[in-house]
Design goal:
The chain has 714 residues and is α+β, with helices and mostly antiparallel strands. The chain has a domain of 460 residues: YVTN repeat-like/Quinoprotein amine dehydrogenase (Methylamine Dehydrogenase, Chain H). Helix content is 25%, strand content 29%. It has 14 helices and 42 strands. The protein has a six-stranded antiparallel β-sheet with strand order 3-4-25-24-23-22. Strand 29 and strand 30 form a beta hairpin. Helix 6 packs parallel to helix 8. The two termini are 45 Å apart.
Length: 714
């Protein structure tokens, strides 16, 4: 961006962050009405009109008891368009297969018999083959294409068993929960057919109790066992499970979810755009080991912008989010993808190093038709697996502009060779937005395009080895506060857990999508609100990624276009709780046991079960500036000039701070049991190394012991 262009971004800088030193009352207060304004509601990407008309015809046929024709039409719809959304009231959307399931499980005996004959004839053999071959993709296809049938429910039962075998208790709970709900609505003839095969309400309750124990939810397991007894489960089976429940309190913690990006695991951390947790060996002092220059679009370097920032005592936020893989630190900036050893040879210089992969010339929005004002900083994010690192370029969109260069996505091997493994180019006029997630062989990333004053968002899945596009799932569109008067960097929050991607669009919608094939699972809308802080800054244009966090079997998000923190049930999308944000710029920092930590000008803690704010926790943590990290019993809390080490239980600072070379805060990550702490500021990346043990600091969290449940097949 030119200096003239940067000068036009003064308004942007003023919107990004509130004062670093302002005073907030310990007791959270509701945001005043004058700091809130409405935004237009979102539009979900619903099914084409011909699909909606055929769905209406199916409802008409069912109402008139034309069972054979209704059964045939239901199977046609499930086969032709399983991956499209349909509206459910005004607050939600669901996949077409879910709507078909709702209609078909409530059929009376006569209708259920007609539908069952067709579904069994077409699907029974496919179910048997999928089970015999242990082909999970084929099994999921059977479940999707015969919704509400005995075949699909038997497939769900088997899918849940497979999930539990690999310790994926979340998926198992969702599958058996769907079976349980269906058994309460099915026609008696279908219930009896399933009973003969062992699929009964009592058996479901027993399995849900086992799932709850595997997930460490012991109170829920106790309730499930009581329900199993009421439903007539075998007394000996219930007694055995009660003895197992008594022993469960001494079991090791549940195994971390496989490639769970929202709670990345220990030294195999994944991405610093997400709430990060590491493990600390012991308390320690730190000293700077080395530092390297960062090349970013730092508008504060412009003299006019800097004068305005100084006048309001506002600092620009750091925009680089590094990761650590093995013995190296990786990061992306405006030049390209960079890597350096954590502990380089003595005397090595880093400022002269070149990127391991250089981006093409920055693709600014063409100015012929684009507005002159550019708002919202890019976020330079990197995602890592055990053997590769992924990054994508982030472009600005304008309502009547076009991108001069395509968005790029690359993968570089994390081994010694560090070869370029993958290169993907985005579509014309589309930018990748937000982080990348990788699960098994699927790479998923959100992309955005702008039409008039609306942003359209979709999630795309690529083969992680070849880059071939596997699927696209449109989510919807909504307007932004700029109302088409500026070019913008869209930001989409994305996390993944056990094969499910959760997308926080910051456009009035949160959705879940199955990663293996892009099938939509659920979409929930929320009231959109334009939130301003005490100084007129707009929450929507905060520079930090608003990545959702997964806590047990729910997902938590604090979208940029809302004045609440919200939690949804991960398998179903049903709302759990909603709490007003305690300050205008609060965002999800991480999950710490039974608490959700929020970060802003100060730190906050919410009860994970209820969403209630603890007003006392974090009242001495002020001046937050950057993305912190959980490290065992510590919270690494970045401020404008240092990284403070905080006892996460008490929310109180302990020990000495890690002084940053430049003001402006940092995005922080740690690895190797707390041996190294990496802080990416606005202009420099600094690696700190532990120098000595400090007995005055809190007891550390050890690496979690292995789970007693079966290992992940991975």
């Amino acid at each position: 961006m030119s200096r003239a262009g940067a000068g036009r971004c003064v308004a942007v800088a003023l919107m990004l962050l509130p004062l670093a030193s302002r005073v907030i009352l310990a007791q959270p207060q509701a945001l005043p009405d004058e700091r809130l304004a409405s935004l237009a509601p979102p539009r979900a990407a619903t099914a084409p009109s011909q699909i909606r008309r055929r769905l209406e015809r199916l409802e008409w046929l069912i109402e008139r008891k034309q069972w054979d024709e209704a059964a045939a039409l239901a199977l046609e719809l499930a086969a032709e368009a399983p991956g499209v959304w349909v509206e459910q009231g005004g607050e939600a959307a669901a996949p077409l297969t879910a709507r078909l399931h709702q209609l078909l499980v409530t059929l009376p005996d006569e209708g259920a018999a007609a539908y069952g004959r067709l579904a069994d004839a077409a699907g029974a053999a496919r179910l048997v083959a999928a089970v015999e071959d242990r082909d999970e993709a084929a099994l999921m296809s059977v479940i999707d294409q015969y919704p509400g049938s005995a075949v699909a429910l038997r497939g769900l039962w088997r899918h849940a068993e497979w999930a539990l075998e690999r310790a994926d208790w979340r998926t198992a709970a969702g599958d058996w929960g769907r079976v349980d709900a269906a058994l309460a609505k099915l026609a008696p003839s279908v219930v009896e057919e399933l009973r003969e095969q062992g699929v009964t309400p009592a058996a479901v309750a027993c399995r849900l109790a086992v799932v709850a124990m595997r997930g460490g939810q012991l109170a829920d397991a106790r309730e499930r066992l009581d329900e199993a007894a009421r439903r007539g489960a075998d007394e000996e089976d219930v007694a055995t499970l009660r003895r197992e429940l008594s022993d469960a309190a001494t079991w090791p913690p549940p195994r971390p979810a496989s490639l769970d990006w929202s709670q990345p695991g220990y030294d195999g951390q994944r991405s610093n755009h997400a709430p990060h947790r590491g493990a600390a060996d012991d308390g320690a002092d730190y000293a700077p080991l080395w530092t390297a220059a960062l090349v970013t679009d730092d508008y504060a370097d412009d003299q006019e912008v800097r004068r305005m920032l100084s006048r309001f005592n506002v600092t620009m936020p750091p925009t680089v989010f590094p990761v650590i893989v093995g013995d190296a630190v990786w990061w992306q900036d405006s030049i390209g993808l960079n890597v350096r050893p954590l502990d380089p040879p003595e005397g090595a210089s880093h400022d002269a190093d070149q990127p391991i992969f250089a981006w093409p010339e920055p693709g600014e929005t063409a100015q012929r038709f684009a507005p002159g004002l550019q708002i919202k900083l890019p976020a330079y994010m990197v995602t890592a697996t055990d053997n590769a690192v992924y990054a994508s370029t982030h472009r600005a969109l304008a309502p009547r502009g076009s991108l001069r260069t395509e968005s790029r996505l690359v993968s570089v091997g994390a081994d010694a060779g560090r070869r370029l493994r993958l290169r993907v180019s985005g579509d014309q006029g589309v930018t990748f937005a937000g982080p990348i997630v990788v699960r098994d062989s699927v790479l998923a990333v959100a992309s955005c395009r702008m039409t008039d004053a609306s942003l359209h968002v979709e999630l795309a899945g690529y083969d992680a080895e070849s880059g071939v596009l596997l699927w696209r799932t449109p989510l919807g569109a909504a307007g932004t506060p700029a109302a088409g008067q500026a070019s913008e960097y869209p930001q989409i929050g994305l996390c993944a857990v056990e094969g499910v991607a959760v997308v926080s669009t910051n456009l009035g919608m949160t959705a879940a999508v199955r990663l293996v094939d892009g099938r939509p699972l659920w979409l929930r809308k929320y009231p959109r609100v334009l939130v301003r802080d005490d100084y007129g800054g707009v929450r929507y244009y905060a520079a930090y990624p608003q990545t959702p966090a997964v806590c047990d079997d729910m997902v938590v998000a604090a979208p940029l276009d809302c004045d609440h923190v919200m939690a949804w049930d991960l398998p179903t999308g049903e709302p759990r709780w909603s709490t007003p944000i305690p300050e205008a710029n609060a965002r999800v920092l991480g999950v710490d046991g039974e608490r959700i930590l929020l970060s802003g000008e100060r730190a906050w803690a919410l009860d994970a079960a209820t969403g209630q704010v603890d007003p006392a926790w974090g009242e001495n943590l002020w001046g937050g500036a950057g993305q912190g990290a959980l490290l065992g019993d510590w919270l690494l809390w970045p401020t404008a000039g240092s990284v403070r080490i905080v006892n996460s239980d008490a929310g109180e600072p302990v020990g000495d701070s890690l002084e940053l070379p430049d003001a402006g805060g940092a995005n922080v990550i740690a690895a190797c049991g707390g041996e190294y702490v990496v802080a990416a500021g606005r202009r420099r990346l600094t690696v700190f190394r532990r120098t000595k043990s400090n007995a005055t600091q809190p007891a550390s969290a050890e690496q979690p012991p292995a789970d007693s449940s079966p290992d992940d097949s991975e």
